[in-house]
TrEMBL record:
Ranges of residues in domain Leucine-binding protein: 62-413
Keywords: Amino-acid transport, Signal, Transport
Presence of the UniProt keyword Signal in the record: yes
Native organism: Bradyrhizobium macuxiense
PANTHER family, sorted: LEUCINE-SPECIFIC-BINDING PROTEIN, PERIPLASMIC BINDING PROTEIN OF ABC TRANSPORTER FOR NATURAL AMINO ACIDS
Protein name: Amino acid/amide ABC transporter substrate-binding protein (HAAT family)
Pfam families reported in the protein's UniProt record: Peripla_BP_6
Keyword Transport included in the entry's annotation: yes
Family to which the UniProt record says this protein belongs: Belongs to the leucine-binding protein family.
Xref: CDD domains: PBP1_SBP-like (cd19987)
Length: 451
């Protein structure tokens, strides 16, 4: 399918089966980067990645991969809605985009954005195959997505190899802008280190020092780095880990893990699972009587978990990227909430917010660079300038391409406290990002080359 088959503002859905059928060249890694296929010059800059082929016409193409099936599907759909709204707003020159990217009129540098969507199913290989196709066939000038940190890390590597910028959607692993960082990758959302640094003082204040903690940890980079960060920060107040139950992604039954938790003597259950895994493990913890014995904490809040667990988040502390009631403090959040709810019929969760802001920031950087030439866009990020977001002013660190932004601590409201059906959380604290961040080289980041 050629790019002319992609309608403005519409999604081209690539199934895993279609990709596999079309992917003999992709699987073997035999598709040549666009920079090898063409040595054309534009704007007096050499060809690199999909530049200048990807912007030779009146439009530019974006490749999006999110989980639309599997344990992270609900969160992937929310993330996708944020991308779709951002593209719609960029193409129309919406007032919210202009507040984040003042030089945007309609499109990016006058180019209308078109896009394709692939279901990653939270599987790195499938995400890479989909995005490789978007790069080679559609000359994608930027790729985005995530939700699974394993996917984000894999797309980091693809972006660096193909010299096409990857704007990470959701990824909570320290490694994404740590040991697996790349020059061509950027992340706007919070992660294990910042979540732990923000929520640990709140937990210590609420529950005291010297507590015993049990962890439920998904067995991949996100789970391990979030758990490690929580353990490190809580240890400063004498908290100990009595058990760490590690489970595979998409586990259907947590009974054996919860039995060990129930017998551990823990005071607090810290559930690091995400997506439907978080919902299922929390529900089963209630069924097994674990939540009658110990307090529940969700250090990395999962979009929709309050709704899907049926009240089990009441009184529970969590760290999150965004909660819609901060609109009382941040005017841009209010504008985003209103436009999102009008289009999609519900208050945005943080997956949608994160996708929107990440996309808007990329558009800003291209406009500031005055070119789609990837090294110039990267250097626009690396200026580290203070820029707007939906949670106030933020900036990107040049050393690791991590956005320095606040983390929001919430507590689940009791049903009688809820003002409407989506009023699940009370915002306890908005913690500034600067004091939460590790040193840029703490997790082994080495960005690599521009060209």
């Amino acid at each position: 399918m050629s790019t002319k088959d992609f309608r403005p503002g519409s999604a081209f859905n690539v199934s895993r089966r279609t990709l596999l059928q079309a992917g003999a060249g992709l699987i073997g890694g035999t598709v040549l980067p666009a920079s090898i296929a063409s040595r054309a010059f534009a704007e007096d800059k050499p060809a690199i990645g999909t530049f200048p082929a990807g912007t030779s016409g009146s439009s530019a193409f974006i490749g999006i991969s999110v989980p639309r099936t599997g344990t992270y599907a609900v969160q992937g759909e929310d993330e996708l809605k944020g991308y779709q709204l951002a593209i719609e707003h960029i193409n129309s020159g919406h007032e919210l985009i202009k507040k984040i990217s003042p030089k945007t009129s309609k499109g990016v540098l006058g180019k209308e954005l078109k896009y394709g969507v692939a279901d990653s199913a939270a599987k790195p290989n499938e995400a890479v195959q989909a995005q490789q196709r978007f790069i080679s066939e559609n000359k994608a000038v930027m790729i985005t997505g995530g939700t699974s940190s394993a996917v984000a890390v894999a797309l980091n590597k693809l972006a660096q190899r193909e010299k096409v910028i990857f704007v990470c959607g959701i990824s909570g692993s320290n490694d994404t802008t740590g040991k697996d960082c790349v020059r061509y990758g950027f992340r706007q959302n919070f992660f294990g280190q910042t979540a732990a640094a923000a929520i640990a003082p709140v937990l210590i204040k609420q529950f005291g020092k010297g507590k015993k903690a049990a962890y439920l940890t998904p067995d991949y980079t996100y789970g391990h780095t979030v758990t490690k960060s929580m353990q490190d920060f809580l240890a400063q107040a004498g908290w100990t880990t009595v058990t760490n139950q590690v489970s595979p992604l998409g586990a259907p039954d947590y009974s054996s893990y919860l039995l060990n938790v129930a017998n551990s003597g823990a005071d607090v259950l810290i559930n690091v699972n995400w997506g439907h895994d978080a919902v299922l493990s929390t529900q089963q913890a209630k069924q097994f009587g674990v939540l009658d014995k110990m307090k529940l904490v969700v250090p990395y809040q999962v979009p929709f978990i309050a709704r899907e667990t049926g009240g089990l988040m009441q009184g529970v502390y969590a760290a999150t990227d965004y909660w819609w009631t901060i609109e009382d403090k941040y005017p841009l959040a209010k504008l985003f909430n209103d436009t999102f709810e009008k289009k999609f019929g519900y208050k945005p969760e943080w997956g949608a917010e994160n996708a929107y802001v990440s996309f808007a920031h990329w558009a800003r950087m291209v406009e500031e660079a005055g070119s789609f030439y990837p090294p110039d866009v990267i250097k626009a990020y690396e200026k580290g300038e203070t820029i707007p977001s939906l949670v106030g002013d933020v900036h990107y660190r040049p050393e690791d391409h991590q956005c320095v932004r606040p983390v929001i601590i919430v507590r689940g409201k009791m049903e009688k406290e809820m003002k409407n059906k989506e009023d699940y959380y009370e915002v306890v604290e908005i913690v500034p990002g600067d004091g939460l961040m590790q040193k840029p080289d703490a997790f082994g980041c080495h960005l690599g080359d521009y060209t």
